[in-house]
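S.,

Sequence below, as promised.
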Amino acid sequence: MIGFSDETYIDIASGKGGNGCVSFRREKFVPKGGPDGGDGGRGGDVVFIVKKNLRTLSHLKAVRTFRAENGKDGSGNRCFGKDGRDIEIPVPPGTVLKDIKSGKVIKDLSKLERFVFLKGGKGGLGNYHFKSSVRQTPRFAQEGQDGVSLRIGVELLVVADIGFVGFPNAGKSSLLNLLTNAKSKVASYPFTTTIPHLGLLRYKDVDIVLADIPGLIEGASNGSGMGIKFLKHISRTQGLAYFIDCSSDDFISRYDLLRNELKSYSDFYSEELLNKEEIIIGTKLDESEAVNNFNILKNKYHDKICLGISIYDDKSINSVREAFYNMIIKQDNDESSN
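The prediction came back faster than expected:
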C-alpha cells in the first residue's frame, strides 16, 4: 500500500442550473410573436463512485477540488439548455464522508457502488411557461438555481475480516506474510509497520482478508507511540486476533493492556469493538521459555481460544488458518440466522 492515505479533505460543488430564456417567435396576428423561450439545463451532480481497484485516498490529495458542470441557458424556439455533466469522484471501498467541522459521518459508502452526494441546481423556466390570457408577452424568465459548494472530510476505513492487534514486534507482520501474499516489513525494532497492511488468505474455498495495523503501546489511547490513529481500521472487522509475544518478560499482562487500550478507544468511537469474536495468538514459541510462558497464558485465559505459534512450525500455522476460517464461518452463520 505504497502512498497510503487514510484521510483528507476535498472541496466539491454541484453545477448551477442554466437560466431560462426570454424569446418571442415571429408569427402574424400574435403579439410580439408569442413567447417561446426555452428552459435552462440542470446543473451537474457530485457523484462518488466506489472502485474496488483503489486502495488509498492518495489521489484525492493530488486533486482536491471537484466541480460539476453548469447547465446551459435555454434559447428561442423552446429549445432546452443542455444539462451539465456530473463530476464523478472515485474512492476505495470502506470510504466514509464526514462533516469537516463536527467530524460526524455524513455517509458510509462501504456497501454502495454509486452515491449522488450533491444534486445540481434546477434549470430556470423560459418565458413560454409564464404566458396567460392576461399576460400574453411575458418579458421575464427564471434564473437557474445555484449549485451547492461544500468542503467535506473523506476517510478510509480498511475493510477486512480479521484485524491483528498487538504491541510492536509481536509477530503480526511475520504471520501476515506467511499466510498471505502481503509484503509487510519485518524487523527487530519497534514500529516497523507504520501503515495498515492487508493480505488475502484463501482457505477451504473461503477468502479471508487480514489487516495488520501498526503496533500499540501502553498509553496509546492518550497519544503515546503512534496513538490510536489506526484503530479505526479494525472497527469493521468480523473478528480480532490478539498477538502476545511469549518470549517477553511481561507476556502475562499484555492481553489485558491491549484490551484496555481498545476500551479507551471504544468509549469514544466504537462500542462494538470489544464485543467482536476474538482469538489469542502466542508467538515466538521457538525461543527459550516461550512454550512454558504460553502454557501459563493459556491457563489464565482458559475460556478463550488460545493458539501458540512459531513461524517455523507449519502445524501451528495451520491451526491459525483453521481458527480464522472457523471464526468467519461462525459469523456468516450467525448473520444468516438473524
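Residues 162-337 form a domain with the Rossmann fold fold (CATH 3.40.50.300).

Coffee later?
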